[in-house]
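Input sequence (304 aa), recorded before submission:
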Amino acid sequence: MTPDENNNDVRTGLIAGLAAYTMWGFLPIYFKVLGPVAATEVLAHRIIWAVPVGALILTFRNQWPEVRKAFSDWRALRGMGITAAFIAVNWGVYIWTVQTDRIFQASLGYYINPLMFVLVGVFVNREVLRRGQIAAVALAAIGVSVLTIYGGVFPWISFVLAISFTFYGYLRKTVQIGAMPGLFIETIWLVLPAIAFWLWLEMQGTSAFTPDAPGTIGLLLLAGPLTVIPLLFFAISARRLRLSTIGFMQFLGPTLQFCVGLYYGETFTTAHAICFGFIWVAVIVFSLDALAAGRRPKRVAEPA
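Predicted structure, token format:
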């Protein structure tokens, strides 16, 4: 690959990554607009309409062979059934959190998510923490403790979001399949219960997806593209950028979510200010440590 081709790849990766995290960061606005629709129904439509959008993208990218290969492997299929359950919990709790004016908790959850990955590495993979990682985890723990003790509220929503996405990400790495084919299979696992729930709402006469509300129908149909397209951008980015670069970019999403929370006038107490202050310092320490580790030359193992 020539230097020009490499520069173009990096530029494309940066644009795609920024697009993905920006869309994820402003996603709360979409769920706020859909506030009158129950979070469970929004979740059902998010799953249902992600399937045809995913199918179109798989066709465009010629990735159906990877999907067929996964369907012939029961172990991989079962693994994605488990990851589908975790991502459904994450999506559902996130939608409900935004609709009930708790965007700050959602933002906090995605700030501490990378630190959760570090802890999984320690307790599951027996990895040894670097000093910067230890400091970042300690700072985040202090921030959460302040919010719990001084603010009188344990941020359980933040932990549900962080833990569900951490387990999703960890288990997802154990299944050898690309981002788009994997998401498609996960939504296939979820789509029948989602359709059944939608039909039940229709029979009860409580569905928001009615001809009397064409605007709401349009918004619910939009759930598919808003679910799949950011992941497509992220997949493009991940193939072209270093992990340390993606590590920096992943904090853009919760930062934008935090700004959206401010825009909607959510209560921001002194406890929140102290907690987020510690979290932001932890993010800086975590990012600088990751950057330093990425630049450090790797030792070449000597032959035995």
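Checked by second reader. Confidence is low (pLDDT under 50) at residues 298-304.
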